[in-house]
Amino acid sequence: LCLCEQTRKLTKYIDAENYCRALLTGLRKERFYVISISTQMKLLGQRIVGEGSLSEVPAYPRLVVETALNHNAYGVILCHNHPGGDVRPSVGDVDVTRNLEMVLSRLGIVLIDHIIVSDGQVYSMTEHKDFTCSIMNRSASLQEDDPWDGQWPE
């Protein structure tokens, strides 16, 4: 998996999952990435916006927004790791994600997902509905009763 491949498309959840897994697997401290995406779901770039300890990492809204704007991104996928082995988000993870979604949406940038990686496992906050993803709200194909189909609507 070449992480520098600028023509890569992340059109399905599994693509983003594999990309985040490649970025974060094996790290011993928490690291927070912003992955910038075009309207065609092409990878525009990624940036580390936070490095932390064994149990926490800062996620500064200013750095997240700056990264998205510098890449001229339509949307972003956030990802970070939990070296401790529990892939589930903390209350703080969910709160930060909801805050970032609000800040980004005011600037016309879509928060597509926030993915957590731990011990080879992956957790999607979009899949688990931990925040309100605006592209999911606009989709007629993903209603509340529908199962997650692994693909973001266009």
What layout of secondary structure does this protein have?
Layout: H1 13-24, E1 31-37, E2 43-51, H2 61-70, E3 75-81, H3 91-106, E4 110-118, E5 121-124, H4 134-137
Parallel strand pairs: 3-4
Antiparallel strand pairs: 1-2, 1-3, 4-5
How would you characterize this protein structure?
The protein is an alpha+beta fold and 154 residues long. Helices cover 27% and strands 23% of the residues. The chain is built from four helices and five strands; from the N terminus they run H-E-E-H-E-H-E-E-H. The chain has helices at 13-24, 61-70, 91-106, 134-137; strands spanning 31-37, 43-51, 75-81, 110-118, 121-124. The chain has a five-stranded mixed sheet with strand order 2-1-3-4-5, sandwiched between helices. Helix 3 (91-106) links the parallel strand 3 (75-81) and strand 4 (110-118). The longest helix is centred in the middle third of the chain and has 16 residues, at 91-106. The model is unreliable at 137-148 (pLDDT under 50).
Strand line-up of the largest beta sheet: 2-1-3-4-5
Let me know the largest β-sheet: 5 strands, mixed
Note the overall shape.
globular
The Rg value, from CA coordinates, equals 14 Å
**Oligomeric state as shown:** single chain
Sequence stretches where pLDDT stays below 50 over 5 or more residues: 137-148
Distance between the termini: 25 Å
- The fraction of residues assigned to DSSP E strands is 15-25%
